[in-house]
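stuck on this one:
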Amino acid sequence: MLHVICVCLNLAKVVLRCTYQINHIEHNACAITMAYFLEVLSQIFGWIYTISWSLSFYPQPLLNFRRKSTSGTTIDFPIINVLGFLAYFTSNTAFLYSPVIREQYALRNHGLTPTVEFNDLAFAGHAAILSILTYTQFFPWIWGFDKNGRKANGATVSKGILGISIGCITSVVITAIIVSSSPREDVRDGWAWIDVVGLTQYDSILLRLAEPYFRSTPYLM
């Protein structure tokens, strides 16, 4: 339920950010005032979802540490989170700080800037770190956990998560090869590096959509 609320807040933030940019183009005082109000509201929604969703990453690793075991959980969950949030962090970094990507985005979107904000980058970085930490808990010698946990159901990577992970990574690599081998001067109607970044972001969304399934079915893989 918390994830659903956070996703809704994130979508609301994006909508408000887009509306802000459109209103900011207008030159009358009313439109500009409304634009700044929407920007503030977008920032508030963005940080609420960032903090709320970030807090949800702590219970599982803390429970594992308290029990000194990962039994009852599945390694697929942290793996899919690590890949998903590293992809999300990478795409957010590019949209925020890469002049090339921001320019290509503007060319394809009527001069607008990406809707990614710093809170998105902070959330992705924090989520990736916590996911990596949870993943390391499946190696008992690092944390001094019960070694029998490595033999329990869900302690080995499933074929499903391997297939999804390999598919996502392969698609990004192939797109990067296409872009690097056939550069176009006009990015609006040809392959460009923004396509690589965009696909990376789509892959992160796909992995996060798959995450609840792997979280809730540790013994069916």
